[in-house]
Amino acid sequence: MNDGGPGARTLTVVRQDRSLGAGRDLEFGLELLSRARNGESGPLLRLYRPAPTVAFGQRDTRLPGFEAAAQACRANGFEPLVRRAGGRAAAYHQGTLVVDHIEPDADAIAGSKTRFGYFGDLFAQALRRVGVQAAVGEIPGEYCPGEFSVHGTDPADSKHRIKLVGTAQRVVAGGWLFSSVIVVENSAPIRKVLTDSYAALGLDWVPATAGAVDDLVPGVDVAVVEQALLDTYAGHATLQAAPFSSLAA
Predict the structure, then answer these.
(1) Is-contact 14 247, C-beta < 8 A?
(2) Which of 19, 54, 187, 223 has the most CB atoms around its CB within 10 Å?
(3) Chain segment 228-237, per-residue pLDDT in tens
């Protein structure tokens, strides 16, 4: 899977039982990427439920309202952080699933564009397994807009689509990290913190585009989505589980 496509590769799956803290979770993903690029680890899939976080893009920090936006996050119980990848602010909490896919790759840059489409399709397939009418593509007014966002359509209103998965990628010489956030449960706090922080930044968006899987398919939880994702991955790679302690965080 090192080129972003199907393959008979073995992928080690590690479930992180608890958040290491908002900042440390982000840092640890970059540390795992460093290990991969240096040949210290092979293809890895890290899954965890994060602490309440708003990850701002680099462009956000240059807006005059950034400090007010960061304060709005804290007031809502979310920790504001700045990620190295591009894009705009995205929010997540324990009702979401973060998926870090990390691989060593001698030609990591060559497949970077292809990877977005490949993983967008993979996540849409996984969500369809749990009953979501999922598709890939930006929807008008979404937060942290992206060409390869994964969205779901409300079965009761085909005109209402909500963003469910946001993706970001970090590519370095010798490896890549493709990080995705699936919003599964409890969308109200995410919608509220994004509303407040985007207002402070002076950015327009449509709050109705922010939601969760369980808004569309009631009763679905993070564990169900995680299993659907692993079942989908199993069609693309041989999966082997390892304890989080094996990563020596």
Answers:
(1) yes
(2) 54
(3) 999 999 999 9
Q: How far is C-alpha 49 from the chain's CA centre?
A: 11
* Element (DSSP H or E) covering residue 249: none
Q: Phi then psi for 187, rounded to 5 degrees?
A: -75, -20
Contacts of 158 (CB under 8 A, 6+ apart): none
Report the DSSP beta bridge partners of residue 134.
152
Which residue type sits at 85?
A
Alpha-carbon distance of 13 to 218, in angstroms, equals 28
Closest CA to 20 of 32, 11, 28: 28
The tokens describing 231, both together, are 């079942």
Residue 8: pLDDT band with limits 50, 70, 90: very low
Q: Running DSSP on this structure, what letter comes out for residue 200?
A: H
C-beta of residue 98 within 8 angstroms of C-beta of residue 49: yes
Query: Taking Cα atoms as reference points, which of 247, 245, 235 lies closest to residue 9?
Result: 235
**Could you read off the pLDDT of 104-146 as tens digits, one per residue?**
999 998 888 899 999 999 999 999 999 999 999 999 999 999 9
Burial 25-59 (b: 16+ CB within 10 A, else e): bbebbbebbbbbbeeebebbbbbbbbbbbbbbbee
Phi, psi of 177 (to 5 degrees): -125, 120
List the Cα angle 133/101/216 in 5-degree steps. Answer: 20
| CA neighbor of 207 nearest in space, from 185, 187, 177, 180 | 187
Reduced to 3 states (helix: H, G, I; strand: E, B; else coil), residue 176 is strand
